[in-house]
Amino acid sequence: MTSAPGLMGFWITALIILVATVEEAQMNKVKTPDILFPPACPKMTNLKNICELGQYRPRYPDKSLPLTGYSDLRRRANAINRLESWYDICCHEQNAPPDSQILCCAEQAWKQALSQFCVEEYSTMSAAYECCEYKNVARWTCFDSELPNPDYDKKPDYIAPIMPREPGFTFNSDAC
């Protein structure tokens, strides 16, 4: 038979452990970032910001995302990281081409990054992002609507972390 004081001590200990566990979980919880997706299609009107403000737009390193769940946000974050990396190629590694060539490169990067995003969306068991259901011009029109940052403005008081270069993009100047 268990005594009342012994049982009470057990419950107090269990409660302390539970509170400590909940507090630790709250401290280790990663806030889900607000991912600026979809990105706007490059145009002459936003090209200057694409090229000059890239280091001031959000990037999403793995540590900024929850460890489990939210795979849709992770795919969106990866698409943004990939696209920003490829914009850097278009804007800074082409030996100062005319703006029309930079724009053509940025458009290719945008379409390729979003095409890859759609391939990744369809590789999961969850429903794909709505725009991925369309093909060709309809897909690009869909992605270029309801934009969170159409002008590629910078995020105040933000400097992007150094991110590794994303492989997989080669500018095709013959397609311009």
UniProtKB/TrEMBL annotation:
Q: Name one GO cellular component term.
A: extracellular space
Q: Signal peptide location in the record?
A: 1-24
Q: Which is a Pfam family this sequence falls into?
A: ECM1
**Gene Ontology biological-process entries:** regulation of bone mineralization; signal transduction
Q: Where in the cell is it found?
A: Secreted
Carries keyword Signal? yes
> Which controlled-vocabulary keywords does the entry list?
Repeat, Secreted, Signal
Q: Which SUPFAM superfamilies match?
A: Serum albumin-like
Its protein name is Extracellular matrix protein 1
Species annotation: Nothobranchius kadleci
Supply the gene name. ECM1
